[in-house]
Specification:
This protein is α+β, with helices and mostly antiparallel strands. The protein has two domains: 31-357, Distorted Sandwich (Beta-galactosidase, Chain A, domain 5); 392-577, no CATH class. Helix content is 33%, strand content 22%. The protein has 14 helices and 23 strands. The protein has helices at residues 3-27, 210-213, 229-232, 292-297, 338-348, 367-382, 388-402, 404-419, 421-430, 435-448, 458-476, 509-524, 533-549, 555-577, and strands at 54-57, 74-78, 82-87, 92-98, 142-145, 149-155, 160-168, 173-182, 188-190, 193-200, 215-219, 224-228, 237-238, 242-243, 250-252, 259-263, 267-273, 279-286, 306-314, 317-319, 324-335, 496-500, 505-508. The strands form six sheets. It has a nine-stranded antiparallel β-sheet. The protein has a four-stranded antiparallel β-sheet with strand order 1-4-3-2, with no helix packed on it. α12 runs parallel beside α14. The two termini are 30 Å apart.
């Protein structure tokens, strides 16, 4: 690779970074609210949160399905884990407040940061309600308390009766039995039905990862398929250049929908039918906008937040006179905690742990590393009483110990390659006109000195699945949310110390330290013989580009990478301190043999 190619590649990477970090925000800035606009008017969502609780689902009057002016009735039930609020609007579960989880944690030292904001998984329509257009009249149900929960009932003039029996269980589980009864003397033709799981929304308006963490996914019994906000492409063009028609609906499934989940980074609403549902439907919706005060308090607040509504879809059906059709559902409304989801998945025969998103490119086998690393980190925290910061350090050390032989072999191989550099250069000059002969002699030199030119790369390739597993684990582990370590206030967020005045950019210390250790490590690594010097120089400073890409990633990931770099530097120094390899040179080749 010549110098010009290197300059082009580096320039392209730099332009990509500038485009995503600066140009796109300028082209599509948050839209400010008009002066005097109130926070939200009906039917906008209202925030309900118990003291010290954490709101997961909230909703307002179901859009277009409740008669104007109809009074709303609420019934509330509380157990050890959550506070549940049921609404007569739609006859579903309106709000779930998680009592064991803190409110939004401060992840940077900002006196103006909003306080006491709950992390929310918003529901524009209550869970287990029918989407607009379904046969439910004015949409106002009667609510009554039962022994274990709530009953919602609706009697229509055509003789159709809709009855929903909700039963509150442990582990954030709500059991629901939905009955459609034809109490008339004639058959009733019912249109298709979409039973809502809820709406995936950002945890809070200041969540910078809202585009990547908000999603609706469905499971077919062996794998999950996820749909995010980018699928609907709210912009009218791609990269501001290529026109594109926005999608209005995502629909999938062919009688194989085991469950559907509306979720953000750490919380999920999961609706599981007793028997597989025919299909799943996802639509993007507008969420209630923040108030002007909220926009002033936090510059990163999303002015026009979006959410994704997910539903289980059923085809039209005909109920004979007196016929009763019953559907059973299980709703999980709670934290995306792996061990909890794995236990519930085993209980209900569903792969609920796949909601964690540990698989990579649909390959569930790679989730093995994420699960193992998460269990190891939790064991260090729960069993040995490590803080989560020290648990990450401990896991990093354990990984390094396991891969120590491979890394040491890689360093020795690179050291031998460096020692062979003069010999390789001589062969390149001698056989520059005979590439076949040059290749033969190079491999003969490697064989005589017991050197594998791929020996330096192979250990790195083997560690890549572990690194990806760690990345996915750190991104999804709710245990790290609000976990402190040294100056870091939240290991699940960047360790922002302050905002640089004038630039409005965060100052994150740990990624800078990480970049410094990567730069130090690259200067200790022996250069590969035969590689163009300009390319070698670029590789030495490539860590700075990694630092830019990972600058706003979680502090937990930066901590892992920093500790891993320091351990690699120590290992490199120890290996270098050993005596250098003895080079076995090739026997000079006579002209007659050539």
């Amino acid at each position: 690779m010549d110098r010009k190619s290197i300059v082009v590649i580096v320039s392209c990477i730099g332009m990509l970074f500038l485009w995503s970090s600066f140009i796109v925000p300028k082209m599509y800035p948050p839209r400010p609210l008009p002066a005097g606009l109130p926070r939200a008017s009906a039917p906008a969502a209202s925030s309900l949160s118990a003291p010290g609780g954490n709101e997961v689902s909230q909703s307002a009057q179901p859009r277009g399905s409740v008669a104007s002016g109809a009074a709303e009735t609420l019934l509330e039930i509380t157990n050890n884990n959550a506070h549940y609020t049921f609404s007569s609007y739609g006859g579903g579960l309106k709000v779930v407040e998680l009592l064991k989880y803190p409110e939004t944690v401060a992840w940077r030292r900002d006196k103006n940061a909003p306080k006491n904001r709950p992390s929310v998984l918003n529901s524009a329509q209550p869970s287990l309600t029918l989407r607009d257009g379904a046969p439910q009249g004015d949409g106002v149900f009667s609510l009554t308390r039962t022994g274990s929960g709530v009953r919602a009932e609706k009697n229509l003039t055509n003789g159709l009766v809709i009855v929903k029996d909700f039963s509150i269980s442990s582990n954030y589980i709500v059991q629901a039995v939905v009955r459609l009864e034809n109490r008339s003397s004639r058959p009733l033709v019912l249109p298709g039905q979409e039973w809502m799981v809820g709406t995936a929304s950002p945890m809070n308006a200041q969540d910078h990862d809202w585009m990547t963490t908000v999603s609706v996914l469905w499971d077919d019994g062996s794998k999950t398929t996820s749909t995010g906000v980018p699928y609907f492409n709210t912009n009218t063009s791609t990269l501001g250049i290529f026109p594109r028609v926005p999608k209005t609906e995502y629909r999938a499934g062919s009688g194989n929908v085991a469950y559907v989940s509306a979720q953000n980074q750490y919380f999920a609403l999961i609706l599981m039918p007793q028997t597989s549902a025919p299909a799943v439907t996802v639509r993007m919706v507008d969420l209630p906008p923040p108030s002007r005060q909220e926009l002033v308090e936090a510059a990163g607040t999303i002015a026009a937040p979006k959410g994704l509504e997910g539903a289980l879809s059923y085809p039209p059906q005909t109920l004979a006179a007196g016929e009763v059709v019953e559907q059973r559902f299980t709703l999980f409304a709670g934290p995306k905690e792996y061990q909890l989801l794995a236990r519930l998945g085993a209980q209900f025969g569903k792969g609920l742990d796949r909601v964690m998103g540990f698989s990579v490119w649909g390959m569930e086998t790679l989730s093995f590393f994420s699960k193992g690393l998460l269990l190891g980190m939790n064991w260090l925290h729960d069993g040995l009483r490590f803080s989560y910061g020290w648990a990450i350090v401990g896991i990093t050390v354990l990984i390094k110990v396991v891969f120590w032989p491979l890394t040491a072999a890689s360093t020795r191989s690179m050291k031998r390659m460096q020692a062979l550099a003069p010999e390789l250069k001589g062969l390149q000059e001698k056989y520059k006109d005979d590439m076949s002969k040059l290749s033969q002699k190079q491999w003969e030199l490697y064989r005589n000195n017991k050197v594998n030119p791929m020996g330096g790369c192979l250990p790195m390739l083997i560690q890549i699945p572990v690194f990806i597993g760690f990345l996915n684990m750190i991104r999804s582990a709710i245990e790290l949310r609000g976990a402190h370590f040294l100056w870091i206030l939240d290991l699940s967020k960047p360790d922002t110390l302050f905002i640089i005045p004038g630039l409005n950019l965060p100052f994150n210390l740990l990624p800078i330290i990480m970049g410094g250790t990567m730069l130090w490590q690259s200067h200790l690594t022996p250069p590969t013989p035969g590689v163009d010097p300009a390319q070698q120089k670029m590789m030495r400073y490539l860590p700075l580009m990694f630092m830019l890409f990972l600058y706003n990633y979680s502090a937990g990931m930066a901590l892992y990478w920093t500790i891993n770099n320091l351990l690699t530097i120590a290992q490199t120094k120890l290996t270098k301190a050993q005596s250098g390899p003895v080079v076995t040179r090739l026997t000079p080749v006579s002209k007659s043999r050539r």
